[in-house]
């Protein structure tokens, strides 16, 4: 289980996350929802060691203090916002980069087979430059690259961003399948409807603080949206 205790993080003198204590259940899909600027991406950056943090991050009870590359070796992998694929490299070259952690390098062809099994479209386009993919395909490539190292915990930042609704559904079908296959997933989304369609647990983040933590099945969408848009004062 991944958990944070009084996690603080930000940029320089600016604190963005204020004492977040969260836990992410093993094998479950936890959705972090919240408006733009809430600190969702900052949370993922802190969890993957891209920015320093105060407080504690624990994995399986052990405190994490490592850098990004160590964390990938421990099975925590981030699929970044905006996909960030290498446009001039082929689909397959991008996937191979995802096998960078030492323990995965020997296992390249079985990793590729596994990812191509999940994303047949990537197999068809394996030799094509990543920059020529559609938005949905690029999202699949970014997720496939993350899966190349067989992560225990996959952090996915805004996978629906800029995608047509039908493509969003396709991407979320695959996220649901990854969860069924046993991957622990942390999903950051502004689109609460699609997030709730796959989530087990939901945390609403606003202004760098947790405003609501609930099992997805108990979430009242109207109440969630009131908190999301900070309408609770008006509606009281
Ligand atoms: N690299 C950065 N340097 C300084 N401030 C940043 C940086 N990235 C994000 N921020 C600020 O941190 C806050 C939270 O941003 P972010 O975590 O990206 O929010 P979200 O992902 O929820 O939209 C925002 O006020 C944003 O301007
Ligand atoms: Mg973000």
Helices and strands, in order, run as EEEHEEHEHHHHHEHEHEEHH
Provide the β-strand percentage band: 25-35%
Mean pLDDT: 90
According to CATH, what is the class of the largest domain? Alpha Beta
Helix content: 25-40%
Number of helices: 11
How many β-strand runs?
A: 10
Q: What's the CATH architecture of the largest domain?
A: 3-Layer(aba) Sandwich
CATH topology of the largest domain: Rossmann fold
User: Ions, cofactors, ligands: which are bound?
Assistant: adenosine-5'-diphosphate, magnesium ion
Radius of gyration over all CA atoms, rounded: 18 Å
Strand arrangement across the biggest beta sheet: 6-7-8-3-9-10
Helix/strand class: alpha/beta
Shape: globular
Poorly predicted spans: none
Q: What is the first-to-last residue Cα distance?
A: 37 Å
Number of domains: 2
| The CATH fourth-level homologous superfamily of the largest domain | P-loop containing nucleotide triphosphate hydrolases
- Report the biggest beta sheet as strand number plus sense, adding barrel if it closes: 6 strands, mixed
Protein name: Branched-chain amino acid ABC transporter ATP-binding protein
Keywords: Amino-acid transport, ATP-binding, Nucleotide-binding, Transport
GO biological process, one term: L-amino acid transport
GO molecular function: ATP binding; ATP hydrolysis activity; branched-chain amino acid transmembrane transporter activity
């Amino acid at each position: 289980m991944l958990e944070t205790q009084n996690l603080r993080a930000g940029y320089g003198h600016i604190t963005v996350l204020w004492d977040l204590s969260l836990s992410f259940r093993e094998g479950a899909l936890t959705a972090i929802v919240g408006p733009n600027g809430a600190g969702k991406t900052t949370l993922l950056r802190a969890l993957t060691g891209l920015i320093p943090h105060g407080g504690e991050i624990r994995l399986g009870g052990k405190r994490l203090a490592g850098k990004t590359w160590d964390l990938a070796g421990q099975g925590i992998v981030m699929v970044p916002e905006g996909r960030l694929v290498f446009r001039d490299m082929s689909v397959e070259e991008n996937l191979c980069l995802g096998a960078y952690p030492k323990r995965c390098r020997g296992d390249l062809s079985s990793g590729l087979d596994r990812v191509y099994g999940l994303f047949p479209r990537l197999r068809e386009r394996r030799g094509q430059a990543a920059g020529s993919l559609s938005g949905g395909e690029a999202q699949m490539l970014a997720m496939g690259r993350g899966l190349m190292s067989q992560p225990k915990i996959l952090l996915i930042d805004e996978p629906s961003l800029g995608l047509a609704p039908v493509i969003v559904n396709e991407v979320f079908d695959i996220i649901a399948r990854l969860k069924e296959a046993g991957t622990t997933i942390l999903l950051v989304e502004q689109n609460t409807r699609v997030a709730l369609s796959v989530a087990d647990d939901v945390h609403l983040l606003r202004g760098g603080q947790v405003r609501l933590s609930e099992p997805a099945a108990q979430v009242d969408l109207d109440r969630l949206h009131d908190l999301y848009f900070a309408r609770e004062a008006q509606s009281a």
